[in-house]
Amino acid sequence: MASKIEQLHFLLVPLMSQSHIIPLTDFAKLLARRGVFVSIVTTPLNAIRYKGVIEHAKAQDLKIQMIPIKFPCQEVGLPEGCENLDALDSMGLAWKFFRACDMLQAPLEKLMEELEPKPSCIVSSIPIPWTEKVCRKFKIPRYNFETVSCFTLLCARNLSQVDQESILSDTEPFLLPDIPHKIEFTRAQLPTHRRPTGGSEEYEDQPIPAKVPARATLVNSFEELEPGYLDGYRKKEGKVWCIGPVSLCNKELPERSARGNKASIDEHYYLTWLESKKPKSVIFACFGSMCRISFRQLKEIGSGLEASNSPFIWIIRKQDYTAQVEEWLTEEGLEARVGKRGLIIRGWAPQILILSHPSVGGFLTHCGWNSTLEGICAGVPMITWPMFAEQFFNEKLIVNVLGIGVAIGVEGRMSFNGETEHLVRWDQVKRAVEKVMDVGSEESRTRRKRAEELAKMASNAVEEGGSSDMNFTMLIQDVLDQLQ
Ligand code: UDP
């Protein structure tokens, strides 16, 4: 099989968002470690952002390249430089962003004609649906890469069986049919699936859009994590392979610290700070790459962390970090009051590096799927604070199915740009941190033990002969079988 594998050329086309490019780049490294040649198509600014990751992979003799295609910002009226969902100031710009994504079809087709060796398949995620047409044109298979869990996929699918007419209000709980656990949702928690049409500037979350035909679906998850949901989804959708958690491919320090973006401060600073703390004592608070958090809400988070008495690392995204926030942190004295107990980062942090440090004992997360899975791999219990998209599904998985989380208590989704928010008060933050970091209670010990067991299962899944490793082999064999 080895020499045949070297004929393979996988073309990956991720949506230009951190939660897609990051796992697909990890996936690329896993493929390349098996001898496959991998090209990742993206835009010039994203290629610059990931330059370090690609260079590091090349230094390990992995055959990976990133191919930039010009992103038509001007043509759709997007400000120059808006090449990633995390760069959008308002989600009103999102429809333009997706229009620009759709315009990449023609340049990709041109690229396909020029690429050597010819691509054997395309792996893309659903928000880039036109890749299916490209595959048909070039007569190669497409594989769908899911950046959500099997739990979300099955729940979202079964939502269509719910009689919406019988639900009287957005806050009335209803049971989701035909899933292995008794799970309730409210309409206020559910993502909406609309994409803009006919030039409308209306836009809402778009987590699970309509299905696009694919030869098979690859899920960044592992079979042992959610077997009932994988089976349920497979029965309905056919070929589904769990190939994750892909983040576990990052074993060396440079891989862990430069993932997704350049970290705002040097990794040694984090490591020295973490080394000074007791094992499992630190709470890590990070809300992904896209959520907008208001100043009002940031103050509640900071005050809650301060009142909790646990050491903490708290990441404030660049977009939320204003002069007003800085004044509150410095002149009004939060940073001085917490002193060495707290590390507040303005910008981007090396999440998997921090999470995997033995001093970290809890994760306050917005429940993005990548973050959820990275928390599982680190074996830490989580405080769940879903904000939008499919994050409420992930909260149910973490808290109700896996039993490794404490819900902070958010009742409904906020809008993508933070205009509608459900304010979480400082005392809710404090209480949740105390609960998850508690070392005395039986409930807390059980949660932590379960989290550690799942981390072990995750690492077994990607080891040689593990379920995800074997699914990887099946994927490669499947592509080989179709070589013309
Ligand atoms: N991330 C990171 N540092 C940060 C913020 C985010 O490394 O400061 C990474 C995180 O590890 C994860 C991804 O960005 O891999 C975020 O993806 P997720 O699906 O959790 O959330 P989204 O960004 O889509 O809301």
From TrEMBL:
GO molecular function list: UDP-glucosyltransferase activity
Alphabetically ordered keywords of this record: Glycosyltransferase, Transferase
Name of the top EC class for this enzyme: transferase
UniProt EC number: 2.4.1.-
Keyword Repressor applies: no
The keyword Transferase appears for this protein: yes
Name of the protein: Glycosyltransferase
Organism: Sesamum angolense
Source organism phylogeny: Eukaryota, Viridiplantae, Streptophyta, Embryophyta, Tracheophyta
